[in-house]
Design goal:
Blueprint (H helix, E strand, L loop, with lengths): L4 H37 L86 E6 L6 H11 L4 E6 L8 E4 L4 H11 L4 E3 L8 E6 L6
Parallel strand pairs: 1-2, 1-5, 3-4
Antiparallel strand pairs: 3-5
Length: about 210
């Protein structure tokens, strides 16, 4: 293909421009490279050694910060431990201690002693006895007379009594109250009283009423 003279002139001018740019760039590179070597020579240090620069990485003694907090040490909460695994101990029952014994019994707590029964009057010292029935119950005077004889009394008579008597009574003359009390206990009569004027003064008189249960 044949080109015109104008086209050739344009191609040559383009090549010249490119070579000029390349030459300018190369000169700039040489210029800046020479200045860098001059600054190193004026520093007063050997040209073969350079000052070490601190490393941007972490040192061996400095802990590495990863940006994540360290995981906490897991601990088992007390509440998560099952109750059955915790040994339980029961307190031993205290030994029973006997109550202290008082040194002496207070007078108010002392056991009561029943009064001793009066001594029985000997049969030889007992007076004669007469028994009277003041009820409608037949044979009552005779039954009590038999009972009195069985315990050592001498019964000289039994009969019915006319009049009103409050309750069964053993009547005694003066000086025979102890004997009357003894006879009342022996035959089951609860009342004793001094003899009435119309009664004999040398013996005990028993009058039985409806309250007599013996």
């Amino acid at each position: 293909m044949n080109r015109s003279p104008d086209e050739r002139g344009q191609v040559l001018s383009s090549l010249v421009a490119v070579l000029a740019v390349v030459a300018i760039v190369g000169g700039l590179l040489v210029l800046f490279g020479t200045r860098g070597n001059d600054s190193v020579a004026d520093s007063g240090q050997p040209a073969g050694k350079t000052t070490p620069k601190p490393s941007g990485g972490p040192s061996a003694s400095t802990p590495v910060q990863t940006g994540r907090p360290a995981a906490p040490v897991s601990s088992v909460p007390v509440s998560s431990v099952p109750v059955s695994s915790v040994p339980t101990t029961k307190p031993s029952a205290p030994a029973s201690t006997p109550p202290p014994v008082p040194a002496s019994t207070p007078a108010s707590e002392a056991p009561s002693v029943p009064p001793s029964s009066p001594a029985s009057i000997p049969a030889a010292n007992r007076p004669a006895v007469e028994v009277y029935n003041n009820t409608t119950r037949k044979g009552l005077a005779e039954d009590v007379a038999i009972r009195a004889r069985q315990v050592g009394w001498i019964v000289t008579g039994q009969d019915n009594w006319r009049g009103k008597i409050v309750s069964s009574t053993v009547y005694f003359p003066a000086g025979m109250q102890a004997e009357a009390n003894q006879l009342a206990r022996d035959i089951g009569v609860s009342r004793t009283k001094e003899a009435l004027p119309n009664m004999k003064k040398d013996r005990l008189s028993v009058i039985l009423t409806t309250d007599y249960a013996g």
